[in-house]
Design a protein that fits this description.
- The chain has 540 residues and is of the alpha/beta class.
- Helices cover 37% and strands 17% of the residues.
- The chain has helices spanning 2-23, 63-81, 125-138, 178-190, 215-218, 246-257, 274-279, 308-324, 340-343, 346-355, 365-383, 411-419, 429-432, 445-452, 464-467, 485-492, 495-504, 512-529; strands spanning 24-26, 37-40, 46-49, 53-57, 86-87, 95-100, 109-113, 117-122, 148-151, 154-158, 164-170, 195-199, 201-202, 205-206, 262-269, 329-333, 387-391, 404-407, 424-426, 470-477.
- It has an 8-stranded parallel barrel with strand order 11-12-15-16-17-18-19-20, surrounded by 6 helices. It has a 7-stranded mixed beta sheet with strand order 2-10-7-8-6-4-5, covered by helices on one side.
């Protein structure tokens, strides 16, 4: 009997030790993206537990945003470690304080953690939000039985390297819907992304309601089937459809804005317009008939550059888009527009003659016609106090210096754009296209390295005037071969973590080995949130 009691007591002790170990954990400030300065202090850290409070102080004119930040922190902690915090207006020990400090830059924040409190200060409410994200990512992941978390005493000062930190999702090829796009926005927020580039129209589908042109969604949002493999000739026979009403688009915009993400719409023109041409054949050079594309690639049929009605259509669409989207940027494509039909179109050639356009070195008169079209549309965009964006093919003409260029065709395209005086966003297909089928064949660390080790500011840019025009970087997912969220997340994660550190962290602080070690915890966060990330890069 005595031996049984001893064994039982030992078992109880081991069980108790296990419970204690499970209920108490320690956070870690080695997060992604790596902050600019992290100085851990040899002192007792902050104990986060049920009953801790969040106090909003010094809200300035951002009271609504700051109190929403407080709720974001409370919900984020509850979801990560199941600790219940509350918001309080009273100062007390064991609190997290959120406040504004206008001596800091717009996106700069600081965190001071000690045994009494955690104080987050930011130059704006969005900067405070990034501080909150740092705290949430410093918590243990997927540990719902934790009762207390110790956050090591620390002083953090942090701000992003680039003002523009973007990611693009194409929904023209496959449609995901409001609920899932909100999920994607949450993923972007976790990685400090501040611009969501939403590719809404292309040859294979028109995904946004335009009330003046209802056929764009009645006809253009539906295609009868999709090709099953690149270079093949087999089709799946499965219709693809779907579009966002203007009210649904506003829901997405509002959801993103609460996470300090600006949604940039893209209406891709004058090429990649078969969905629009199928809806309104009179907008093309030949009058059709046209069909919403079931194949992928570049098509000769584009908007008619010499048709006044076509220009009015484009202006009308952009006006409605700007009514919906408050974004400072409006993206109008400009990529992959063959000029073959324009060369034989009487209206296009008449317009070229009317405008007095001539072939110049490196640019045909048809290239100049596209440049004229883009310039006319830019006037409409600028009249609303907004800025035009386009892919780097717009450099084939002579666009205005006020156009912002997304350099996708190569790293050299970003060099060329900056040297020509354009604000430039670096998004080369070679490194930042996560749907690139060739690069998706890379496995393990090489797949991450391919993203992580490309610096957006090319060494070919030497002068401060040129380097200052590289305003950021963007990753892209095109959905020709991405039919569902599982495949999209596989392409997105964890390479988005590598991209976000390129976008946020200073070049001299980035280190691939350090990043890989910190990525293990990020994968645990993905798992806890139910994200279906690619698992061949690192063991869990």
């Amino acid at each position: 009997m005595t031996n049984r009691i001893v064994v039982l007591l030992c078992a109880i002790c081991l069980w108790a030790q296990h419970i204690v170990a499970a209920e108490v954990s320690t956070g870690n400030w080695n997060i992604i993206p790596l902050p600019s300065q992290v100085n851990e202090i040899k002192a007792k850290g902050f104990t986060l537990k049920d009953g801790c409070t969040v106090r909003v102080s010094e809200t300035g004119n951002e009271s609504e945003n700051m109190h929403r930040n407080a709720r974001m922190l409370i919900n984020g902690v509850a979801n990560a470690v199941n600790i219940a915090m509350t918001e309080s207006s009273k100062k007390r020990r064991g609190e997290v304080v959120l406040s504004l400090d206008y001596t800091l830059a717009d996106e700069q924040y600081s965190i001071k953690a000690d045994s009494r409190s955690v104080i987050v200060k930011g130059g704006s409410a969005k900067a405070v939000f990034y501080g909150i994200q740092t705290i949430i990512k410093a918590l243990p992941a997927n540990c719902q039985n934790i009762k207390k978390v110790t956050l090591p005493a620390v002083q953090i000062s942090d701000s992003p390297r680039f003002a523009y930190r973007g990611f693009m999702i194409d929904e023209s090829r496959h449609f995901f819907g409001v609920d899932y796009i909100k999920c994607v926005i949450d993923m972007l927020a976790l990685h400090n992304i501040n611009y969501f580039h939403w590719h809404l129209t292309d040859d294979q589908g028109w995904r946004i309601e335009i009330k003046k042109y209802p056929k764009l969604t009645q006809v253009g949002s539906w295609r009868k089937e999709s090709i099953t493999e690149a270079g093949g000739n087999n089709f799946d026979g499965i219709p693809v459809s779907g579009f966002y009403t203007q009210d649904e688009a506003r829901q997405v915009i509002a959801y993103a804005a609460e996470r300090y993400i600006t949604v940039i719409p893209e209406i891709d023109l004058p090429g990649h317009m078969l969905a629009a041409l199928a809806s309104y054949p009179e907008l093309g050079c030949t009058g059709g008939p046209y069909e919403v594309a079931t194949r992928y690639g570049v098509f000769d049929d584009v908007l008619c550059g010499g048709n006044n009605a076509t220009m009015q259509f484009a202006k009308d669409v952009l006006q409605e888009i700007m009514d919906i989207f408050p974004s400072e940027y409006i993206h109008i494509g400009g990529d992959e527009c063959p000029k073959k039909i324009w060369k034989n179109c009487p209206k296009c050639q008449a317009k070229i003659t009317e405008l007095g356009l001539k072939d110049i070195e490196g640019h045909s008169k048809e290239d100049q016609l596209q440049t004229w079209m883009m310039a006319e549309l830019e006037k409409v965009i600028n009249s609303r106090g907004k800025k035009m964006m386009g892919w780097d093919e717009i450099l084939e003409g002579c666009p205005s210096k006020t156009a912002t260029v997304l350099a996708w065709t190569s790293v050299d395209a970003s060099v060329r754009a900056a040297r020509q005086g354009h604000n430039t966003i670096v998004c080369p297909i070679s490194n930042f296209y996560f749907s690139n089928r060739h690069w998706n064949k890379l496995t393990g660390i090489e797949s991450l390295k391919h993203v992580y080790e490309l610096d957006p500011v090319s060494d070919k840019l030497q002068s401060p005037d040129e380097t200052s025009l590289i305003i950021g970087a963007e990753g892209c997912i095109w959905t020709e071969w991405v039919k569902d969220g599982e495949k999209l997340e596989w392409e997105l994660l964890p390479r988005l973590a590598a991209l976000c550190e390129v976008q946020w962290t200073r070049r001299d602080l980035r280190n691939l080995d350090s990043f890989v070690e910190r990525l293990r915890h990020m994968q645990h966060i993905y798992a806890a949130r139910g994200y279906r990330y690619r698992k061949d890069l690192l063991p869990d």
